[in-house]
Design goal:
elongated, two-stranded antiparallel sheet, Hypothetical Protein Ta1238, Chain: A, mainly alpha, 187 residues
Length: 187
C-alpha cells in the first residue's frame, strides 16, 4: 500500500495553491479566511469532546461538515475553477441552524444581562468557537471587499456564531446551574 504524501514542498517559498491551481501568498486574504474556518472546525472538534447529548453532537457533526464546505468554497478561485456543488452553502443549511438556535433558545431563560464566557468547560469552549467564528466572519468580509462571496456563505457564518452563543448558555446552565452575569459596576 502506498502512503499518502503529507508534504509536497510546494509551499516552502511562502505560497500555496487555491482550488483551480492559482498560487497565492500564505498571507492572502482568501487563505486567512478559509484558514480561520479550519481553525474553527478544529475547535468544534474539541468542543465535541465535552458535549454529551446526542442531539447536540449530531448537530455539531453537521456543522463540521458544513465548515468543510465553507472552507472549500473560500479556497476556490472562481476565476480559475468552477465551483463544485459540494462547495455551495445552501439556504437549507441556514434554516437548519436557525431551527437549532430556536430549539435551544426555547429551553433557556430570557436573557436580561450580558453573560461572561465560562462557567464550565463545554460553555467556555462554545464561547471560543463563537469568537473564532466571529473572526472568520470578519476575515470573509475582508475577502468580500475584493472578491465575490455569495450571500449564503456570509449568512451561514453569521448564524453559526449565534448558535455557539446559545449552546454556551445551555451548557453553562446545564452544568453550572447558572450563567456568569457581567458585573458592570466592577471597578
Amino acid at each position: 500500500m502506498n502512503k499518502s504524501v503529507v508534504y509536497t514542498r510546494t509551499g516552502d517559498s511562502g505560497t500555496t495553491s487555491l482550488v483551480g491551481g492559482k498560487r497565492v501568498t500564505k498571507t492572502d486574504t482568501r487563505i486567512e479566511s478559509y484558514g480561520t474556518i479550519d481553525e474553527l472546525n478544529a475547535f468544534v472538534g474539541l468542543l465535541m469532546t465535552e458535549i454529551n447529548e446526542k442531539e447536540d453532537l449530531d448537530f455539531l457533526h453537521f456543522i463540521q461538515h458544513k465548515l468543510f464546505t465553507v472552507g472549500s468554497y473560500l479556497a476556490t478561485d472562481k476565476e480559475s475553477a468552477e465551483l463544485k456543488i459540494e462547495s455551495k452553502v445552501t439556504s437549507e443549511s441556514i434554516v437548519r441552524i436557525e431551527r437549532e438556535i430556536d430549539r435551544i433558545d426555547g429551553t433557556l431563560p430570557r436573557m436580561k444581562n450580558f453573560v461572561l464566557p465560562g462557567g464550565c468547560r463545554s460553555a467556555a469552549l462554545s464561547h471560543v468557537c463563537r469568537t473564532v467564528c466571529r473572526r472568520a466572519e470578519r476575515q470573509i468580509y475582508r475577502l468580500h471587499e475584493i472578491a465575490t462571496i455569495e450571500e449564503p456563505a456570509l449568512i451561514f457564518v453569521n448564524r453559526l456564531s449565534d448558535y455557539f452563543f446559545v449552546l454556551a448558555r445551555k451548557e453553562c446552565i446545564k452544568n453550572n446551574g447558572e450563567e456568569i452575569i457581567w458585573d458592570y459596576s466592577c471597578t
